Amino acid sequence: QLLDAVSGLIERHEGERHDEPGAATPAVTSSDPFPFEGHYVGQMIMLADAATVSRYLDAHQGWFRRCAHPMTADPLGETGYAITVGRFGALDFEVEPKIGLDLLPQDQGVYRIRTLAVPGYEPDCYMVDFNAEMHLQESSEPDENGHIFTQVKWELHLAVWINFPRFIQVLPRSLVKTSGDRLLNQIVRQVSRRLTRKVQEDFHTSLGLPLPKLEKRHFWQR
Predict the structure, then answer these.
(1) For all residues of the chain together, what is the average pLDDT?
(2) Within a 10 A sphere around the Cβ of 217, how many other Cβ atoms?
(3) Does residue 23 carry a pLDDT above 80?
(4) How far, in whole angstroms, is CA 205 from its chain's centroid?
(5) How many CB atoms lie within 10 A of CB 28?
(6) b/e map 45-65, b = 16+ CB within 10 Å
(7) Which of 50, 27, 74 lies closest to 171 in space, CA to CA?
(8) Pairwise CA distance, residues 98 & 57, whole Å
(9) Using CA atoms, how far apart are residues 169 and 177, in angstroms rounded to an integer?
(10) N or C end of the chain, less CB within 10 A?
(11) Using omega within 30 degrees of 0 as the cis cutoff, is the peptide bond preceding 75 cis?
């Protein structure tokens, strides 16, 4: 069944390329990890001034693990977490990524998150490079309901390298690249939407503030 599925994927891919006669379709090779990357930006609204939002973000030990659920987030030192994202897959290949993230102390109002090694854990088929930044922008005027608000704007550059098993290596590189990029975007979209809403709910509930509407376009890819 697996071979039939792989053959079907190749045939469908070749059929989609009928307008490119003679185009080469090199397969994935096992010599190097296969790279995927994405650049994303987004924002969330907090109905408070920037100083209040900053105090909340600074105290991530009190909210991050709670808001990350159902992902597990085990503490690593004072500012780090080992996060198990969940099980994801494409092309009959599944992986349950675990990555270490270091939530660095703010630097003049800028928050940065970097990849952190997880002690005693060596992923066998992937590597991740996570680089994110957030900054706060307080509104100059109240919103339509009279609330001062702060935009938490974030930017993420995410790079992933995967060592694929043999049955993936027979597939054309373009097919693997398309499928992998689509999966990466799906994971970021799903996690960012859920985390954004949970952080908003936690922040506003803790201060007794109304909850802002979740913007339809809180996240997009560059």
Answers:
(1) 80
(2) 7
(3) no
(4) 25
(5) 19
(6) bbbbebebbbebbeebeebbb
(7) 27
(8) 23
(9) 12
(10) N
(11) no
